[in-house]
Amino acid sequence: MKNINIKNLKTAKRYAQALLETSKDNIDEINQNMDEIYNLINENSDFKMFFSHPEVSLKDKKEVLEEIFLNKINKNTLNFLNVLLDENRFNIFNTIYDVFKKDTQILKNQQTVTVTSAVDLNEDEKERIKQKLFEKINKEIILTCETNEDILGGLVIKINDKVIDLSLKTKFDNLKKA
Hints:
Blueprint: H1 9-22, H2 27-43, H3 45-52, H4 58-69, H5 75-86, H6 93-107, E1 110-117, H7 123-137, E2 140-147, E3 155-159, E4 162-165, H8 168-177
Parallel strand pairs: 1-2
Antiparallel strand pairs: 1-3, 3-4
Helix pairs in contact: 1-6, 2-6, 4-5
C-alpha cells in the first residue's frame, strides 16, 4: 500500500469500508471504477488540483465530477465521490483507494505479489510462479513483475511486508560474508 497516510488512515478505513459494504453486489465494477479514478487523479495534476483547491465551489466540483463520470462509472461510485466532496475528504482519495483495494482482495481471497527478476519473465514462468505461490498461501495470486538487472539472476518475491530473496546477488553477498 503505497499511498497510505497514517494521519488519515482511520478515516480512510471508514470510507473504504462503507464503499465496500454498499458495493458487494457489483464489487468488480466498483473496483474497476476506483482504478480508473485513481489513475485519472494520479496522471492528471490539473484534475487533482481542481478537486483539492479550496476556492473552487462545491457546486462546481460536483458539476465537473458529474460531467466527467456520468454514465461512465457505477452510480454507487459516483455517489461515493460526491460524499467525499461533501465531507471535504477528496484529498484522501489515494489512501481510501489503497485500503479499499486491500479490503477487496481480502474479501475475494486474493493476494498481490511482486516478483523481481533479472530478465523479463515469459507467460509460462509467470504461471508457474503463480501456481507455486497459490499452493503455499492458498489465495488467488495477482502477480506484478518487475525487472532489475542488479540481482544478477533468481527472484525476489515480495508478499505484503515479507521479502523472500532468492537472487544470485544475495547468494554471492552471503558467500563473501562467510
